[in-house]
Amino acid sequence: MWTARAFLAALESLSSDDELRKYKRAFPLARRGRERFLGVAMASVSELARASTGMPLDEVEKLLESPWHEARAGAVGIMDLQARNRMTTPTHRRALFELYLRRHDRINSWDLVDRAAIHVVGGYLADRSRDPLYALARSPEPCERRTAIVATMYFLGSGDTHDLFAIARLLADDPDREVQKATGWALRAAGPPGLEHFLDQWAPRMDRVALRYAVEKLPKVTRERYLKAS
């Protein structure tokens, strides 16, 4: 299963009308005909990705070029698994990072970003300049801005919240709902005391969606105080 063609053939064999209906309910772009689904359960896509972790990156890129959402989900799943593998060489990690950014036009949905941004992008930048994240945060493309904030969650493993809060400031009133959700999700993961220091200044300027996600796990009295400030 280490070629794009074999992966696509396996996907087609697993498609079902029931799953296709679920995707059309969950993804507005599918209902409007702007995103194409085969109708394969994401659990099955993940299983195929695990069976294909040795896929060369030129074949992974072919999957990214597919019009089918599940094929692109498989591609980012393979990239994520390769990035997580401790045996992956520094050269290959760089190649994964470069492929992600170069083909971000095909990583064009919130779920595709979330599947790989943390380890492929954040993991690669952990001991490097974070400048690429700030460029992404200023992109006109919502999925690129979502990558910027989601990738910072990798740094939380070492207690590093600097870039997470800095990029959250750039995205605090982002016009895209999916970027708002990711910003709030990342802030919630960062948690106190940094979260409260951030909200003391930024809660009044944050989009309501991002703020609700950010305060979700705070004590009720604190949560209500920030929500009233917006």
Commentary on this structure:
The structure is a single chain. The mean pLDDT is 94. The chain is globular, with a radius of gyration of 18 Å. By secondary structure, the protein is an all-alpha fold. The chain has 15 helices and no strands.
Notable characteristics:
single chain, 230 residues, mainly alpha, 15 helices
Mean of all residue-level pLDDT scores: 94
Order of helices and strands: HHHHHHHHHHHHHHH
How would a crystallographer describe the biggest sheet?
A: none
Q: pLDDT below 50 for ≥5 consecutive residues: which ranges? A: none
Count the E strands.
Answer: 0
Query: How many helices?
Result: 15
Specify the helix fraction band.
Answer: 55-70%
Using only C-alpha atoms, the radius of gyration works out to: 18 Å
